[in-house]
């Protein structure tokens, strides 16, 4: 028998934000105005029961759908922004791979890139120009009128552009489908710090901070751009290890992201395309 909404006691007490209190999907990839996962979870637990479908038609990076999934609901995610669905689907699909495959993929990328990245870190302008001609780059598209620079390539230093392209090429060569997607999600998270819009947090470690895109919603170039080192692939490694952790930790009844659904037992893994 269906529960009537009038019979549900609303949440009256404040739910304190716990953005950093647990290792969870929340920190895998930055996104705009993300809500605290524990607050979202509190509402899911109050207003639904196991096996219910929980829909978020403005799902962003998937906090609602994935929290529903973790609580044995069927999470349904949709967003007009393809980037949002890329992040949400990427996290949910981690359950379709194997931890050993993620570890092997990380080592494969490291072996392919580490020495070359060390060389690029110390390369001069002439060498960087030569290297730029040897890597695959996306189209150099024009940016929106409120951007500080005109073209896409202008968001990166030559060293960042070449290094990111080198990493992306190595990730594209990962043979395991789901491990490759996990590495691509890690690469995308790294990209948010490895560009000229990265604003380093004042008074903290140089690597602490974020892209202006996620705070002021435009491509604002930092007054003093920080060029974080690629040589040890530290950000990619750390994010990938987080993905490996999540692969073993996300279980639930099902999820539907971007129009693809999966439903099973309470211990089943996500089945998102």
Structure explained in plain terms:
The protein is α/β, with parallel strands linked by helices and 273 residues long. It folds into 2 domains: 22-96 and 249-263, Vaccinia Virus protein VP39 (Rossmann fold), CATH 3.40.50; 106-246, no CATH class. It contains 9 helices and 6 strands, in the order αβαβαααααββααββ. It has helices at 37-47, 63-70, 82-92, 99-121, 125-132, 158-172, 177-191, 213-216, 234-249, and strands spanning 53-56, 74-77, 198-200, 209-211, 254-257, 260-263. The strands form 2 sheets. The chain has a 4-stranded mixed β-sheet with strand order 1-2-5-6, with helices on one face. Strand 5 (254-257) and strand 6 form a beta hairpin. Helix 4 (99-121) packs antiparallel against helix 9 and helix 7 (177-191) packs across helix 9 (234-249). Mean pLDDT is 81; it is low at 244-255 and 258-273.
Defining traits:
single chain; 273 residues; alpha/beta; Rossmann fold; 2 domains; 4-stranded mixed β-sheet; two-stranded antiparallel sheet; 8% strand
